[in-house]
Design a protein that fits this description.
Elements: E1 5-9, E2 18-23, E3 26-30, E4 49-55, E5 62-69, E6 86-89, E7 99-101, E8 105-107, E9 110-118, E10 123-126, H1 133-144, E11 148-154, E12 160-165, H2 187-196
Parallel strand pairs: 3-5
Antiparallel strand pairs: 1-4, 2-3, 4-10, 5-9, 6-7, 6-10, 8-9, 11-12
Length: about 200
Amino acid sequence: MGMTQISISDTFDGGNIEVGAIEGDRVRLRIKPDVFTELEQKSHAQSFCFRSTVSQLSPAETKEITYVIDNASETSYPTAWKSSTVFFSKNLEDTDSWRRKLDTEYVDGKLMWTHNHSQNGSVFFSYFPPYSYNRHLDLIARCSDHAVVTSLGQTLEGREMDCVKVGTGDRTCWIIHRQHPGESMAEFFAEGLWHVF
């Protein structure tokens, strides 16, 4: 077989990463910041999710690749990395398939872990398992069968900001999730909460 090739992609819903360099079996990455917020006068950066495809492996061959996020110390909450473990899965949409990389380390401001890739070695790595926009749309459709769903406006990407109204009474309670682009995992809570109603 030829030389091992590594390809990194974040062009999917919830994807977020930037390749710094691929140096042999070491992939250097950077978390891209979210859109600048006027209220806080900053661009948050914390969440990442990307696909790594390792090619040119023979059927019995495995290749250990080290992943390094160089700007982990520059994120919004760098102290979160100290006890964090990166998630990985071969299936982006299967929430039960995600596992943790127990060798995750935060050293000298960098987040690092390794993975043994095999043939057909396409793997997703993420800060938290993502909640896709398609799954969001399905949840909103289910909610609309039993609740009032309205739009509060649109995001910068032109997606609806949905409001699901349930119940009656004198008191109002707002439950907000998916507030920042990298918080898609908060929607798992919303889906669980919907089952209560």
